[in-house]
Amino acid sequence: MAAISASSSHLFHPCISPSRPSSRIIISMATKRKVNKYDDSWAKKWYGAGIFYEGSEEVSFDVVKNLEKKKVLSGVEKAGLLSKAEQLGITLSSIEELGLFSKAEKLGLLSLLDRVAGSSPSALASIALPLLVAALATVVIIPDDSTALVVAQALIAAALAAGAAGLFLGSVVLGGLQESE
Questions:
Q1: Which residues cross the membrane (predicted)?
Q2: Is it the case that residue 31 has pLDDT exceeding 50?
Q3: Cα distances (angstroms) measured from residue 15 to each of 2, 24, 26, 128
Q4: Which of 63, 64, 45, 41 has the alpha carbon at shortest distance from 53?
Q5: In whole angstroms, what is the distance from residue 62 CA to residue 142 CA?
Q6: What is the pLDDT of residues 58-117, one digit of tens each?
Q7: Is the CB of residue 164 less than 8 Å from the CB of residue 129?
Q8: How many angstroms separate the CA atoms of 146 and 156, rounded?
Q9: pTM listed for this prediction
């Protein structure tokens, strides 16, 4: 038996050898904060789940406090980003003249920003992938028969790719802001 194990030991990789304990790391893809929730509208029926269902813990997140802790405004000041923006012609008075803040309020962008700040960064990154695939599919599916189709193909693909890039970068920024200390 010793001859068999000695001769067959070269067949196993050192990390997965039967004689050594495994040193592999198992990474879980599940969310960290799973909880059982009580369903208020539950009624006993012949189908469906029970009175409890699996959900995730609601995490409150305050963007302003986290920006304050990370001293983002001090970093903006030290980097000189405000003076560079002023050199490019972007000032608070020009933003005021354009009415960007009132337009953002009318479109509900502030409430959208609040909802996105409380969501999972992985969910934002997960939405980015189908948008990127749709951008690639647009290039492949729309024919190049005329100039109008090529322009439409380019505009649609660029919009989808820009949305995917924005969601992915937003997920990275949001993940950095939501990091626990």
A1: 123-142, 154-177
A2: no
A3: 21, 8, 14, 36
A4: 41
A5: 44
A6: 556 666 777 777 787 788 888 888 888 888 888 878 888 888 888 888 888 878 877 777
A7: yes
A8: 16
A9: 0.54
The secondary structure element, H or E, covering residue 54 is: strand 52-56
Q: Which amino acid is at 158?
A: A
pLDDT score of 160:
96
User: Which amino acid belongs to residue 87?
Assistant: Q
Task: Give the side-chain half-sphere CA count within 13 A for 140.
Answer: 6
């040193």: which residue's tokens?
23
- Please state, rounded to an integer, the average pLDDT across all residues of the chain: 75
At 37, the amino acid letter reads K
Structure tokens at 138: 């647009």
Tokens, residue 95:
């933003």
Which residue intervals of the chain are DSSP H helices? Answer: 2-8, 63-70, 72-79, 81-87, 92-98, 100-107, 109-117, 121-141, 147-177
